[in-house]
Amino acid sequence: MAVRLRVTELTITAPDPRALARFYARLLGRPVTTEEGPAPGEPPEAGWAQIKAPEGSGEITLNFEWERRWRRPRWPAEPGAPFATQHLDFQVTDLDAAVAHALEAGATLAPVQPQENVRVLFDPAGHPFCLFL
C-alpha cells in the first residue's frame, strides 16, 4: 500500500510570531485565524499564530511560532552567519505591483536580485521570500 503525504501547513519561527503573522496577513489579504499569547514565564512577544488557507484553495496554512534563540538569517548566506534554510515563493501576475504591495505591507527589498523575473524580499523578521512571474 502506497503512503500518500500532502503538505498542508508550514511553520515559520520568529522572534515575534504574532507580529509576523499580521505581516503575512496584510501581504496575502487573509485574516490571522488563530493567535495565542506567551506561555507563563515567556516574554510578551512569545506565542503562536496561524493564517489558515482559504477552504478549497489548495494553498497551505501558515503557522508562526516563537523561537527563543532567534537570529536573523543572512541572504545571500555569509560564512559564520545564520542562513535561511528555506523560503516562501509567491507567484504573481504583476511583479512591480506585487513588490509595491509587499513593501507597503512591511517587507524590504533585498539588495541582491539574482533573476530578472523574480524579486527577493525580506519579511520583518528577516526571512527571505520571493515574488515571481
TrEMBL record:
InterPro entries for the chain: Glyas_Bleomycin-R_OHBP_Dase, Glyoxalase_6, VOC_core
UniProt-annotated stretches for the region Disordered: 32-52
Gene3D superfamilies per the UniProt record, alphabetical: 2,3-Dihydroxybiphenyl 1,2-Dioxygenase, domain 1
GO MF entry, a single one: dioxygenase activity
Transmembrane listed as a keyword: no
Keywords on record: Dioxygenase, Lyase, Oxidoreductase
Domain of life: Bacteria
Signal peptide location: none
Biased composition (Low complexity): 35-47
Record has Oxidoreductase as a keyword: yes
Pfam families in the cross-refs: Glyoxalase_6
Protein name from the UniProt record: Catechol 2,3-dioxygenase-like lactoylglutathione lyase family enzyme
Residue span(s) of domain VOC: 6-133
